[in-house]
């Protein structure tokens, strides 16, 4: 089981998210556990006040470090204690994969003007889900919870379903289709209806490469490209110089067609004898 402990001032924001759909089923089956800790329970005063005005002046309120420390001390030891902050490292699929191997993750969800800077000494890691600002860390917590939990064995119905996801393979995902086969003049690609698994796999890989090239070319240098991928990208207009910049392997050398020796005919034999 992987336990997620979220230290927050608003556990009611995360409670429904953690108890519904796939996450709720995973929790019911004992695959994950979501522990919502209300930091107001550790305020240390009768008014449950957890924040105070910042030293040096300024707008807003700051969550006290002693409150955060008491809340963290109430938990069993965690593999990682993570603070959501705009200054943190960017949360990526690789981060999710790494965190999914842990057994207990604790997260500090800030509000107001954030935490007293001394909280940084209580954490092992700082994360950001993007270059934008929200009103608190609960939105980031929901994103990280879903991204990490779905990678745990048994959480998803199909164990292979997440391996072809966008970013898991290093590329954007290929397009998917289902019924109806025709809609508003748009049909399903014939290759997907033919039943040839090899052709389908090649088509999907080509589509993933094309989508990534047009929408997120910054992903290609770390996508683990193959010689066949390089050949496909060249056909899409990429230059050899770009492939070299991305560290991509050269495309396969064109196969040389072996010419069969020409059969000697009776006429040929007669011509040589006459000469």
Automatic annotation (TrEMBL):
The keyword Cytoplasm applies. It catalyses: guanosine(37) in tRNA + S-adenosyl-L-methionine = N(1)-methylguanosine(37) in tRNA + S-adenosyl-L-homocysteine + H(+). Signal peptide: none annotated. Residues 3-220 form the tRNA methyltransferase TRMD/TRM10-type domain. CDD domains: TrmD-like (cd18080). SUPFAM superfamilies: alpha/beta knot (SSF75217). It is an enzyme of class 2 (transferase). It is found in: Cytoplasm. Keywords: Cytoplasm, Methyltransferase, S-adenosyl-L-methionine, Transferase, tRNA processing. Residues 245-275 are annotated as: Disordered. Gene3D superfamilies: 3.40.1280.10, tRNA(m1g37)methyltransferase, domain 2. Its main location: cytoplasm. S-adenosyl-L-methionine binds at residue 110. Its EC number is 2.1.1.228. Specifically methylates guanosine-37 in various tRNAs. Homodimer. Belongs to the RNA methyltransferase TrmD family. This is tRNA (guanine-N(1)-)-methyltransferase. It comes from Deinococcus aetherius. The gene is trmD.
């Amino acid at each position: 089981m992987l336990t997620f402990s979220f230290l927050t001032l608003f556990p009611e924001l995360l409670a429904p998210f953690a108890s519904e759909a796939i996450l709720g089923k995973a929790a019911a089956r004992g695959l994950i556990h979501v522990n919502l800790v209300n930091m107001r329970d550790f305020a240390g005063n009768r008014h449950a006040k957890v924040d105070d005005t910042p030293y040096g002046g300024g707008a807003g309120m700051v969550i006290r470090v002693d409150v955060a420390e008491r809340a963290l001390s109430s938990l069993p030891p965690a593999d990682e204690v993570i603070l959501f902050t705009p200054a943190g490292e960017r949360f990526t699929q690789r981060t999710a994969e790494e965190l999914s191997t842990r057994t207990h993750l604790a997260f500090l969800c800030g509000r107001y003007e954030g935490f007293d800077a001394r909280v940084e000494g209580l954490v092992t890691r700082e994360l950001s889900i993007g270059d934008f600002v929200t009103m608190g860390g609960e939105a980031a917590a929901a994103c990280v919870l879903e991204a990490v939990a779905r990678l745990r064995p048994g959480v998803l119905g199909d164990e292979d379903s997440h391996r072809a996801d966008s970013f898991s393979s290093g590329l954007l995902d290929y397009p998917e289709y289902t019924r109806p086969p025709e809609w508003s003049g748009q049909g399903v690609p014939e290759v997907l209806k033919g039943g040839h698994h090899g052709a389908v796999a090649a088509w999907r890989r080509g589509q993933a490469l094309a989508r990534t090239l047009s929408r997120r070319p910054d992903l290609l240098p770390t996508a683990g490209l193959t010689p066949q991928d390089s050949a496909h990208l060249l056909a899409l207009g990429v230059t050899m110089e770009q492939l070299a910049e991305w560290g991509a392997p050269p495309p396969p050398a064109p196969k040389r067609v072996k010419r069969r020796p020409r059969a000697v005919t009776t006429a040929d034999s007669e011509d040589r004898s006459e000469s």
